[in-house]
Design goal:
Helices cover about 40% and strands about 20% of the residues. It is of the alpha/beta class.
Length: about 400
């Protein structure tokens, strides 16, 4: 597992092999817990004594702990090992144009305190003040959670290559905002920031260790207020020179199409976002920048899906139009990245049974290699909070990452 943002390469030293072995064992425990020393020795093909030395180091560092003993037909009962998530937590934040979601997780990205929301202030300084107050109050009210390892925050926009500033978040109207340092000063915590699509991709790569063989080359697509795309090749999130690789949402489907929040027209995002789908249903163009009319603001994609299931033909037509554009855009992603798998998430996918055929037909009509039309598509329910888990992974994944060695 590589770190979310590139760090300086370190020169190897005498302790480097042991450091790497510790990370290997740590990730094996994460993937297979509960697991015994004997199990780890068998998996790695290493002497049990050598494994015990590594495990004892990790226990002393507070990274593993020994739990209950297992049963065995004969011999000594195995002592099971677990990642030590006790007394440590992470603050996960998902920033969207209209609302910000907040959740506390453990070091395995599992929720400790459920999701809460607040309206996103348009001014970034007001936003930082409000979020910092929310984080401080939550941690003060739940001191039993122990030390907070940091804040993971995702945004619908581009983050600079250092992970410190929001380079451009069109739907938020933010440009060159040094959000990391502002929030770190207000909270006293380490802050990690990333684009929503890449964070979701990171979390997906990090959270399915048992099937990494199937998931080392994939694309994660999050359809919501905007369109976030993360590309993973050989287990590593693709970033590019300026940390904007994978911005498929702003590739044009039709240069004469509807306006996009980025300032261009006809971007893929402008055809498939929640606003685009609702615009079709209501028969009026909803600006990605301006306020949404009050009679529409309370209407959601979930409401639209409910109407479609209730026989509303106009609602079904709006969903089908979005499905077609979704498939056409996916074809561009498949042609460019040739992933083994595509993960899809977002509110509209709750209607997958209604739109799957249309998505796949549009995908098949544009892929260059006919076999690519059968690229595996896996849905990730919005109920699983993939965006917030992605935010949490910005903090937790580096704890399990191997060092970058020259």
């Amino acid at each position: 597992m590589k770190r979310p943002h590139a760090e300086p390469v370190r020169v190897a030293h005498r302790g480097t092999p042991r450091e790497i072995n510790r990370q290997i064992v740590l990730n094996l425990v994460r993937a297979r817990q509960p697991v015994s020393r004997a199990d780890l020795a068998r998996v790695t093909g290493t002497r049990r004594g050598a494994i015990s030395l590594i495990v004892n180091d990790l226990i002393a560092q507070g990274r593993l702990y020994e739990g209950a003993k297992g049963e065995t037909a004969r011999g000594r009962k195995p002592q099971f090992l677990y990642i030590d998530t006790r007394n440590r937590c992470v603050a996960a934040v998902d920033v969207r144009p209209t609302r910000t979601s907040f959740m506390i997780t453990d070091l395995l990205n599992e929720p400790l305190i459920g999701v809460s929301m607040f309206a996103t202030p348009t001014d970034p300084h007001r936003f930082v003040k409000r979020l910092a107050e929310r984080v401080r109050r939550t941690l003060d009210d739940h001191r039993e959670l122990g030390r907070c390892e940091g804040i993971g925050l995702i945004v619908p926009g581009m983050v600079d290559s250092t992970g410190s500033s929001i380079a451009f978040a069109p739907r938020l109207g933010w440009r060159d905002v040094a959000l990391r340092d502002l929030l770190a000063r207000e909270t006293g915590l380490a802050v990690h920031i990333e684009n929503s699509g890449r964070a979701c991709a990171l979390a997906q790569a990090w959270s399915v260790p048992r099937e990494m063989g199937r998931s080392r080359d994939f694309v994660f697509l999050s359809v919501s207020d905007g369109l976030g795309v993360g590309v993973v090749v050989n287990g590593e999130v693709v970033r590019g020179r300026h940390n904007v690789a994978g911005e498929f949402g702003h590739t044009p489907l039709d240069v004469d199409g509807p306006p996009c929040a980025c300032g261009a027209s006809g971007c893929w995002e402008a055809f498939v976002s929640n606003i685009a789908t609702l615009s079709r249903y209501f028969g009026r163009e909803l600006s990605p920048h301006g306020p949404i009319p009050s009679e529409i603001a309370s209407f959601t994609v979930d409401d639209l899906i409910a109407r479609a299931r209730g026989g509303d033909r106009k609602a079904l037509a709006a969903l089908q139009a979005t499905a077609r554009y979704l498939g056409l855009g996916l074809a561009s992603v498949v042609n460019a990245a040739d992933p083994a798998r595509i993960f899809l998430s977002g509110e509209i996918l709750e209607a997958w049974d209604l739109i799957e055929e249309t998505v796949r037909a549009a995908l098949a009509s544009r892929v260059l290699a006919p076999a690519a039309s059968s690229t595996e598509i896996t849905l990730v329910s919005a109920r699983e909070q993939p965006r917030l888990r992605g935010a949490a992974a910005l903090v937790t994944a580096p704890l399990f990452a191997a060092p970058r060695i020259a």
